[in-house]
């Protein structure tokens, strides 16, 4: 073989090696690009997942805050309603306390009230014999309504009229002002 053939053969081998090297370099480049894209996609998905989780966490926090705020507003409105009810009840108690001072002045109304209270007590107690305690001033009035109270009770409950005895110990006299009607005014 002469130098020209050797040179051509060497050139051909160099081209073949270069072509192989370029193909291998392209394969490596394509493989690296694929690995890069896969890694990038995994990182992007991981970050998206992290952002979604963070968003869901913040959304839950907002929901909890809304529920707490709603509950606080609901409680505040309940407190206002209860306060208004309490004010009305206190006004009614005050008014009733003032009216109680005048109850015994109207003889007919007071007599009816005493009879109704006695009947209610009998219905509540459901006893065959009762010891009744009243104010000293009210003894004659109570004695005058006892028979009708016994009969009314007996007809309501379908029993024999009970025996009612008036106690010798009397309740204290009526208060002179409405503040005396506290829980222990009679003690």
CATH class of the domain at 104-180: Alpha Beta
What is the count of helical runs? 3
Assign the structural class, choosing from mainly alpha, mainly beta, alpha/beta, alpha+beta, or little secondary structure. mainly alpha
Order of helices and strands: HHEHE
Residue runs with pLDDT of under 50 for 5 or more positions: none
What's the mean pLDDT score?
Answer: 90
CATH superfamily of the domain at 104-180: ATP synthase, E subunit, C-terminal
- CATH topology of the domain at 104-180, by name, is hypothetical protein PF0899 fold
Beta strands, count:
2
Largest sheet: 2 strands, parallel
Straight-line N-to-C gap:
143 Å
What share of the residues lie within helices?
A: over 70%
CATH architecture of the domain at 104-180: 2-Layer Sandwich
Rg over C-alpha atoms, rounded to the nearest angstrom: 51 Å
What best-fitting shape do the alpha-carbon axes yield?
Answer: rod-shaped
| Beta-strand content | under 5%
Order of strands in the sheet with most strands = 1-2
């Amino acid at each position: 073989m002469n130098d020209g053939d050797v040179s051509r053969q060497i050139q051909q081998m160099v081209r073949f090696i270069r072509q192989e090297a370029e193909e291998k370099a392209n394969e490596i480049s394509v493989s690296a690009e694929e690995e890069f894209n896969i890694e990038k996609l995994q990182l992007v998905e991981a970050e998206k997942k992290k952002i979604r989780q963070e968003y869901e966490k913040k959304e839950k926090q907002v929901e909890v805050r809304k529920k707490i705020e709603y509950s606080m507003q609901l409680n505040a409105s309940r407190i206002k309603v209860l306060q208004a009810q309490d004010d009305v009840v206190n006004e009614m108690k005050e008014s009733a306390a003032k009216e109680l001072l005048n109850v015994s002045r109207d003889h007919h109304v007071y007599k009816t009230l005493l009879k109704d209270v006695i009947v209610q007590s009998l219905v509540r107690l459901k006893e065959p014999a009762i010891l009744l305690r009243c104010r000293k001033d009210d003894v004659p009035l109570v004695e005058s309504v006892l028979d009708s109270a016994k009969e009314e009770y007996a007809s309501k409950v379908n029993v024999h009229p009970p025996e009612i005895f008036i106690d010798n110990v009397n309740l204290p006299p009526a208060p002179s002002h409405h503040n005396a009607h506290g829980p222990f005014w009679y003690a």
